Amino acid sequence: MIETPQQFSILGLPIHLMDDYVGWLYARLQAGIGTHVVTLNAEMTILCETHEALRKIVEQADLTIPDGSGIVFYLQLHGKKIRRCPGIELAEALLKTAGSNGHNQRVFFYGGAPGVAASAAQAIKQKYEGINIVGAQHGFIQGAEIEELKKSLIALQPQLIFVGLGVPRQELWIAQNRSLCPQATWIGIGGSLDIWSGIKSRAPAILANNHLEWLYRLYQEPWRWRRMTALPIFARKAIVYRFTHPSALDEQLPINEAPPK
């Protein structure tokens, strides 16, 4: 029997907390249960306040993990001591498992600039021997090319689909198209393809371990500064919510049930 994750509220959005995300996802994968994974951070949480379509997708996701340091900070304010689960690390753990012990799950990459998805696929093949990557498509396609991508997904029926189109585009695309591969695990992975391909790098451990990975991303991508303004807004809301909704996280909710408002 597959464990049901405990669900709590992050400013009214669901977050699922458990010890073994990879094991839970892999059990569903082997059982042929389609899954949409959302990697929640502070930026996405604030965006959901004005982007109704994205909010509904997050509320209906099968698994929402604490990707950002702001989410961990929020939960700690409510006495929930958890570790951050970066989406890229969850994705790599799934890829490692898929390429080991003869599991041979079919993997598909979609997103990034031209050439990035293919380079990322090649790098992952070299890193995890035995991985079965059945396709890699960059994210700069439109019209007939998108229709061809959909046909390929239907024909290939990959079981692990990683979509790196950025927030909220990747979440919207997954929600609109997951019926093409109903038994697959779909994960929005942001800029992970850039990192796997070697175009960009992750923050040094000293920054990541001190909740400053956002600063390194801003250094690599200065254009993100407008999006970074969500961080102080989230911190203020987290503190206010802590004292106006002191018991919001004390209630454990069944998965996919509406979170407290």
Description:
There is one protein chain. This protein has 261 residues and is α/β, with parallel strands linked by helices. Helices cover 45% and strands 16% of the residues. The chain is built from 13 helices and 8 strands. It has helices at 21-31, 42-47, 52-60, 69-77, 87-98, 116-127, 144-156, 169-177, 192-197, 205-208, 213-220, 225-228, 230-244, and strands spanning 6-10, 13-17, 35-40, 63-66, 106-111, 132-137, 160-164, 185-188. It has a 6-stranded parallel beta sheet, sandwiched between helices. The chain has a two-stranded antiparallel ribbon with strand order 1-2. Helix 4 packs parallel to helix 13. The chain is globular, with a radius of gyration of 18 Å. The two termini are 31 Å apart. Mean pLDDT is 87; it is low at 249-261.
Please outline the major beta sheet: 6 strands, parallel
Number of helices: 13
User: Which percent band covers the strand fraction?
Assistant: 15-25%
Low-confidence stretches: 249-261
Give the % helix.
40-55%
Structural Rg? 18 Å
How is the quaternary structure best described?
Answer: single chain
Q: What class, by secondary structure content?
A: alpha/beta
Net shape: globular
What do the pLDDT scores average to?
Answer: 87
Number of E-type strands:
8
Strand arrangement, major sheet:
4-3-8-7-5-6
* N-to-C span: 31 Å
The H-and-E topology, N to C, reads as EEHEHHEHHEHEHEHEHHHHH
